[in-house]
Amino acid sequence: MAILKILQYPDERLHKVAKSVARVDESTRKLVRNMAETMYAAPGVGLAATQVDVHERIIVVDVSDTHDQLQVFINPEIIASSGSSDYEEGCLSVPGIYETVCRAEKVTVRALNEKGEPFTLDAEGLLAVCIQHEMDHLVGKVFVEYLSQLKQTRIRAKLKKRLRETM
Ligand code: NI
Q1: How far apart are the CA of 134 and the centre of ligand 1, in A?
Q2: What is the pTM assigned to this prediction?
């Protein structure tokens, strides 16, 4: 396994749109394992392939307290959603920034697991937030884009400054 490099906002590659996985095979499973290891090491509760510069529709999520309940979604689609809720979100690609985003409260997701088998899952709470946040990455959207232009400009300036300081 390997820990992958996570792209940092405002890297342009975070805005690429991921392609569907045509076939779930050993290389897919290897990527999933590396994504999981990268997420746990960060540590984080979710990671999209986009964030490690692989533009395929794959996300991994683990919102458990014990960090041993990995959930893998390949080619995820939200087939139903309801309600709305505000949640303070963060992102491994936008370190140190936490902002409230309004999303659907409940979602039903259809996806393939790492064996290529289809499944459907009803999610709510943090899991629903996390799935929606990670699926946004697959279409090139970072959570800060839900904020005002002013806030986005401030966040970009802050992260660029921090990047310069660490170089
Ligand atoms: Ni994120």
Answers
A1: 6
A2: 0.96
